[in-house]
Amino acid sequence: MNPRRLFISSGLAAAASSLLPQQAFAADKLKIGFIYPGPIADSGWTYQHDLGRKMVEKEFGSKVETVFVEKVPESADAERVIRDLIATGCKMIFTTSFGFMDPTIKVAADFPNVMFEHCSGYKTAPNVGIYQTRFYEGAYLLGILAGHKTKTNVLGYVAPFPIPEVIRNLDAFVLGAKSVNPKVTAKVVWVNTWYDPVKEQEAALSLINNGADMLYQNTDSTAVVQLAESKGVYAFGQDSDMSRFGPRAHLSGNTLNWGVYYVHKVRQLLEGKWKSEDTKWGMKEGVVQVVKPNKEVPAAALGVFEKTKANILAGKFHPFTGPIKDTEGKIRVAAGKTITEDEIWQMKWYVDGIVGKQPT
After folding, report:
1. How far apart are CA 326 and CA 312, in angstroms?
2. How do 331-333 and 324-325 pair as beta strands?
3. Which residues contact 325 (CB under 8 A, 6 or more apart)?
4. Residue 220: what are its φ and ψ, rounded to 5°?
5. Contact call for residues 340 and 320 (beta carbons, < 8 A)
6. In this model, does residue 26 exceed pLDDT 60?
7. Model's pTM, two decimal places?
8. Other C-beta atoms within 10 Å of 41: how many?
9. Tell me: the pLDDT tens digits for 167-189?
10. Are 46 and 220 contacting, i.e. CB atoms less than 8 angstroms apart?
11. pLDDT tens, 276-319?
12. Residue intervals in the chain for CATH 3.40.50.2300
């Protein structure tokens, strides 16, 4: 085994606790651990986080060593994995999914000299910082393309879990589509998993059978894009560039460069400047990056896409600018106003145009 990698091939917590690096690293190096909810080969969420880990190694060279654990269950089992990383000498740990929040907080209380960074959560501690992205900025832009390109006026969304992170991406996607095509509606299938190609494909097929000709996902595999390619509809990748899995179908994608943030926080620690922060970076900081639209996108749509993108980067436009109604007709954001930060990060309601009830 490569000593810089601690990984799980089975996805079971028991296996996680038994797989340890084969050799210790030099005491003067900062050892950094990453735990991932999915496999690094998912070409999605975990794949992008692992690219960020590699970016840290490239940036800091011999000053750091990194290890990772993949396929970690988002449950109490994660606590054992985190403790194992600390036992091998990790002084900084990135826990990269919402479900790792409570295990991270619990372990951090026992190890005040280890610095933790948790992705997508809301609980902090003196040695726990949190980070998430303005992913909704990219989702809004993809919605613009979907609204222009759809023939059925039905969008499909494959969703993992009904947490604010997922709902605000869905809402932004629909708002972007409706900004250019008020006739658009969106249907959602919840699969209750971040990564399951079979379930994701089944959900996407159900959406196609119910009229959707534009598919977006908040799940991690390439199954949705691949299905779209085979069925003659269009799709938008998530987390990483999935265009190679659907050269025609993949109109664009919403991707993340986690390395920008990871390098920033590791540098802070190496320089003795690390502190617990609540960080939310987006397109402006270079974390959220949208894949260049393919040749299937018409010129009119591309023009609106690029103009809106420029305005987001310049701080001249916010995707959640009113008037915005929810599915019951209630005004959630007044005309000319922008949604509050608290509302963005706690979003639990559907915007007008989304069909069906939210899961409880």
Report:
1. 23
2. antiparallel
3. 331, 332, 351, 352
4. -105, -15
5. no
6. no
7. 0.89
8. 11
9. 999 999 999 999 999 999 999 99
10. yes
11. 999 999 999 999 999 999 999 999 999 999 999 999 999 999 99
12. 13-133, 135-255+289-355
d(CA 114, CA 147): 47
Tokens read off for 27: 């005491």
**Residue 153 structure tokens:** 């006026």
Domain 13-133 maps to which CATH number in 3.20.20.150, 3.90.550.10, 3.40.50.2300, 2.40.50.840?
A: 3.40.50.2300
Within 10 angstroms of residue 42's Cβ, the number of other Cβ atoms is 24
